[in-house]
Amino acid sequence: MKTKNILKPITYSVSILLGAVLLWPAMLLAQDTIVETDSHRFQQVAEGVWFATGTGSVFTMSNAMVLVGENDTLVVDSHVTGAAAQALLDSIPALTDKPIRYLVNSHYHFDHAHGNQSFPEGIEIIGHEYTRIKLNGERGNVLEESTFRSFSDPVPATIANLQRQVAAESDTSRKAGLQERLRVQQEYLAAIQQVVPTPPNITLDRKMTLFQDTANGSREIQLHHFGRAHTGGDVVIYLPQEKLVFTGDMMLPGLAYMGDGHVDEWPETLEGLKTLDFDKWMPGHGPVMESREPIGNFQTYLRDLWEKTSAMHRRGVSADQAAEQIDMTNHSSSFAQIRGPGVDPRAIRRIYQLLNN
Ligand SMILES: [Zn+2]
Predict the structure, then answer these.
(1) What's the 166 CA to ligand 1 centre distance in angstroms?
(2) CA of 136 to the centre of ligand 1 (A)
(3) From the CA of 13, how far away is ligand 1's center (Å)?
(4) How many whole angstroms from 52 Cα to the centroid of ligand 1?
(5) DSSP string covering 1-23, please?
(6) CB neighbourhood size of 177 (10 A)
(7) Nearest CA to 231 among 109, 116, 133?
(8) What's the gap in Å between 63 CA and the centre of ligand 1?
(9) CA 44 to chain CA centroid, nearest Å
(10) Helices 345-356 and 293-314 meet at what angle, rounded to 10?
(11) How far is the CA of 180 from the centre of ligand 1 (A)?
(12) By the 8 A CB rule, do 239 and 41 touch?
């Protein structure tokens, strides 16, 4: 077991301390190693497999994964802006000095792919054919689409609101906290304005496999497109030896955004994910997961949402009225976000769009 990467000065690990006391096997130690930089927290899920989340000092919005090999490094997803991706690129040397060779996009959405532009020339960007089509502007500018706009247009209002809160706050430490959030949002807004959608230059349709040299031989990295789901081109990144999968937004611990989803096909696509043999899954948002139960719960939710929305559509109810009326509280034990009747109108408008086609 190689441990050179965990001996850097900024590295710390709760489990190393525990392990020293309990004399746990070294294999267990490596799995819980945490490396933190100012902007990122890296959790080692298996040797050389790092799950990356933002610390909050830079607005990253989504998770990433870093696979460190003997000669090179592969990154999955590039965060929400060039600035967020740059923070990731600046943090990776805390894990390894092996150069980045590949960036993989799990899907085209802004919060996973708008950092692509910061990856230097020479790094290959891999994604689904559909991800390339969306990001190269062939079917319109993603910066003008409702998904990007519905998340990005409110940022100035968020900033104005924080400015009001800062002005009104008299408690020094709370004021400092608000000022920090304000700084992060202001930098995020500036970075949004510099986004240049940058498509993958290597694409796949159903499957692609990469083999990364490691100290023990070679790591198999499978990219699977099981069908349309959260977008038209979702790719999951599967490591069969490590029994790990990065699911992007096709499968989250909670309810995923559905504004570009193929809600009718999504449950079947998740059947593909279920055929993989894995112990842990890393979502595009939220923590590393072990239980497979949420997958079945989400399939059930999607099928029910499709049926309920179709019924409203048949009755001639408008999409926005349907979004207010549809009651999914029968799933509230599976999804904590569900606190009462009503569904994200962007999901319902999307389902109506599919039903109208
Ligand atoms: Zn997404």
Answers:
(1) 32
(2) 17
(3) 31
(4) 17
(5) ---GGGGSTTEE-HHHHHHHHHT
(6) 14
(7) 109
(8) 11
(9) 17
(10) 60
(11) 26
(12) no
Residue 231 CA, ligand 1 centroid: distance in Å: 7
Q: Give the residues across from 158 on adjacent strands.
A: none
| Predicted local confidence at residue 253, as pLDDT | 97
Distance 158 CA to ligand 1 centre (A): 21
* Ligand 1 center from residue 163 Cα (angstroms): 29
Q: Which two tokens stand for residue 73?
A: 């490094």
- Arithmetic mean of pLDDT, 310-332: 98
| Cα of 109 from ligand 1 centre, angstroms | 5
Cα 249 to ligand 1 centroid, rounded to whole Å: 5
> Which residues touch 123 (CB under 8 Å, ≥6 apart)?
100, 101, 102, 103
Q: Could you read off the pLDDT of 63-88 as tens digits, one per residue?
A: 999 999 999 999 999 999 999 999 99
- What is the rounded CA–CA span in Å between residue 28 and residue 82? 35
> Residues 116-127, buried b or exposed e (16+ Cβ, 10 A)?
bbbbeeebebbb
**Mind listing the pLDDT tens digit for each residue in 37-57?**
999 999 999 999 999 999 999
CA of 164 to the centre of ligand 1 (A): 31
CA distance 196 to 78: 13
Domain ranges of the chain: 146-192, 294-357
Q: How confident is the model at residue 31 (pLDDT cuts 50, 70, 90)?
A: low
Distance CA 115, CA 40 (A): 15
User: Ligand 1 mean position to 20 CA, how many Å?
Assistant: 40
Amino acid in position 347: A
Report DSSP letters for 123-186, one per residue. -EEEEEHHHHHHHTTTTS-GGGSHHHHHHHTTHHHHHHHHHHHHHH---HHHHHHHHHHHHHHH
Q: How confident is the model at residue 23 (pLDDT cuts 50, 70, 90)?
A: very low
Using the mean position of ligand 1's atoms as its centre, give its distance from the Cα of residue 11 in Å. 31
